[in-house]
Design goal:
Helix content: 40-55%
Oligomer: single chain
CATH architecture of the largest domain: Orthogonal Bundle
Order of helices and strands: HHHHHHHHHHH
Structural class: mainly alpha
CATH topology of the largest domain: Endonuclease Iii, domain 2
Number of helices: 11
Largest sheet: none
Number of strands: 0
Distance between the termini: 7 Å
CATH class of the largest domain: Mainly Alpha
CATH superfamily of the largest domain: Helix-hairpin-Helix base-excision DNA repair enzymes (C-terminal)
Radius of gyration: 19 Å
Number of domains: 2
Amino acid sequence: MPASKTKPKKKTDLKQQARTIERLLRKEYPDAKCELDYRSAFELAAATILSAQCTDKRVNMVTPALFGRYPNATALAAARQEDVEAIIKSTGFFRNKAKSLIGMAKAVVMHHGGEIPKSMDELVVLPGIGRKTANVVLSNAFGINEGVVVDTHVARLSKRLGLTKQTDPVKIEQELMPLFPEESWGLLSHLFIWHGRRVCDARKPRCADCVLRRICPSAA
């Protein structure tokens, strides 16, 4: 994408830009939500672990069989790794993911009575769960906006839209949070992800069809 030739924006201007982006994306995607299928915090945590380097569509094809056999943390904690691997193999990196799933379940059973905890500090120490996954669980399963989920789509759009120059997900999150209202943090990631999947593609962004083209510094 061509680099922006404009001068760096002041914080107040950047915040106004961010609010305009949010307003336009909310109008464009009124139904934006998590596209992983889940019925509980446990299922969402497991599905998010599986989503690493894998599409949500593929994860949604796998999880019915996984949750049919292991409907809760207690059941998954007692699973044999090879059995879990066989179910989730098509998601990629299945050995590491199976290890993380079982480890997460065991920790939840041992330290939280089989229930997924509701705090960032307790979530990020669980096997397979980093800050991104914790934010997904907190915002979608519990309605807690602790931060912004920064996946590849959010990272890409944030940079293209001139909201950050950072490349590290945690630093990107730290720069995004002050720009948007706390009550919008959970929805923000869905808006960016939906737009990234549908319009702002990594290789061939469809700038001519983009609702943000007039304010995007990277628009072709």
